[in-house]
Amino acid sequence: MSFEISTVNVNGLRAAARKGFVEWLGSTGADAVCLQEVRAEPGQLPAEAGAPAGWHVVLVPSAAKGRSGVAVYSRAEPDAVRTGFGVEEFAGSGRYVEVDLGAVSVGSLYLPSGEVGTERQEEKERFMAAFLPYLVRRRAEVEAAGRELVVCGDWNIAHREADLKNWRANRRSSGFLPEERAWLSRVFEEVGLVDVVRDLHPGVEGPYSWWSYRGRAFDNDAGWRIDYQVATPGLAARAVKARVERAASHDLRWSDHAPVSVVYGAS
Amino acid sequence: MSFEISTVNVNGLRAAARKGFVEWLGSTGADAVCLQEVRAEPGQLPAEAGAPAGWHVVLVPSAAKGRSGVAVYSRAEPDAVRTGFGVEEFAGSGRYVEVDLGAVSVGSLYLPSGEVGTERQEEKERFMAAFLPYLVRRRAEVEAAGRELVVCGDWNIAHREADLKNWRANRRSSGFLPEERAWLSRVFEEVGLVDVVRDLHPGVEGPYSWWSYRGRAFDNDAGWRIDYQVATPGLAARAVKARVERAASHDLRWSDHAPVSVVYGAS
DNA sequence: CTTATAAGG
DNA sequence: CCTTTTAAG
């Protein structure tokens, strides 16, 4: 049986729920949906967003109110849930959760956004340094058990020039720094995980998954591809279809990111 | 010649301007309009609200950004402008301004709102204690010069039971405390200024000028009369008509207060 | 419930 | 530009 996974940074689930997330969730064919930047605790959400009928919800908020927060919504009940990735500094940061759904472990990642020359960029780099060994370990564990892993989410890094519209102007911008791009290359080349959407669509621009709310970024399609599904090779080989659900108009947007969805065929 | 004065707490002029204040200002027949809670500096306002054609604007913001702020809009250019009332603690608080328009001085007052048991209630009481002597002095000065005075604004006190819908439930609420009501009585009885709207309409409930945004206060007309025109007896005797411009529907509200307007006949 | 603010993105 | 928080009302 095939299954579909979607991932989207909702930029505040309370606001997204008012603007169209609930309708999107009702119409998606996905079996699992990974969310980032929920920016709310379960009790702050309306039931149709926080406990929708037909879905199991695992929500890991940040200890800091109104910040970060990741979730996995799944039609099947998860067999297991793991919160965080075992690094003290990022415990309680609401940036990673992983659920087991049959033979696949599905992670929802919200990698910190940075700003060059600030402490937030240093935090982003510490996160990257801490998360890479976790990926190495998880790949080994998962494959030793005959299972697969996909880490979905907002990785806050565009990998190559084809992954953002204005790459020349952004060579010194956080999210496209050489050291960030090199780190992502290590995830793909050293750890051996696969950028599923790029694997299915080599040699195309984008598809972008984030457009700033500032200026005319959305109208000009001045986007970035920073939301990924990063999978073990065995699972990546089963990916048959990928799409980014870019809103048809500004009025239909309910986040500054768009859902990135992948259909995986039967094993 | 008769003239009309309106007073209204706009609860943030930027928000009010988006919701209907500009249209109201364009349709009013008033010669002078006193505003309270402007909550903006002139440069933060769109021209149609901050510098409308046909009006002279005197705006006194608070030193604290986004707080308080009073203004007088007048069709004639003021002959003089006085800011504050000469008490150090409330200098820069954006709570009082007075302009001279011919033989009448028009003040715009935003008396602090309080909350029982808090420092804000103590500040309200210090303001009251400091403002009363100012009124005494100004009445004497104005009348000695053969002029009149009207202090318009949000006094944040309902005087009598007829001045709020739920007076029993609010006997211990800031805005209807015995000491606040007694202070207003002193303004009327000792200082000898006149509550113009009540003088024209004795023995009626209200008319209320403020309805909380919380709950169903507006729909239930659970209002308070806390916005006043308080005038020297000579001017009060010339008042011929008063009204509160309560919005016809929730959708037409552009503030939690409504304009209180008085027509004064020729002297 | 609504207006501001500030920080975050 | 947008969503949060916090303070104020």
SS field, number of helical segments of chain A: 7
Order of helices and strands of chain A: EHHEHEEEEEHEHEHEHEE
In the CATH scheme, the class of chain A would be Alpha Beta
CATH architecture of chain A: 4-Layer Sandwich
- Approximate shape of chain A: globular
Find the CATH superfamily of chain A.
Endonuclease/exonuclease/phosphatase
Q: Could you tell me the strand content of chain A as a percent range?
A: 15-25%
Radius of gyration of chain A: 17 Å
Oligomeric grouping of the chains: homodimer
Residue-averaged pLDDT of chain A? 96
Q: What count of structural domains of chain A?
A: 1
* End-to-end C-alpha gap of chain A: 8 Å
What's the arrangement of strands in the largest beta sheet of chain A? 3-4-2-1-12-11
Low-confidence stretches of chain A: none
Q: Main sheet of chain A, how many strands, which sense, barrel?
A: 6 strands, mixed
Helix content of chain A: 10-25%
How does this structure look, described?
The structure is a homodimer of 267-residue chains. Chain A has 267 residues and is an alpha+beta fold. The first copy, chain A, has helices at residues 13-19, 21-27, 47-50, 119-144, 178-189, 196-200, 233-236, and strands at residues 3-9, 32-36, 56-60, 70-74, 80-83, 96-101, 104-110, 148-154, 194-195, 227-231, 239-244, 260-264. Chain A has one domain: Deoxyribonuclease I, Chain A (4-Layer Sandwich). Chain A contains seven helices and twelve strands. In chain A, α4 runs parallel beside α5. The first copy, chain A, is globular and about 45 Å long. The chains hardly touch. The structure holds a DNA duplex (9 and 9 nucleotides). Chains A, B: The record marks 257 as: Interaction with DNA substrate.
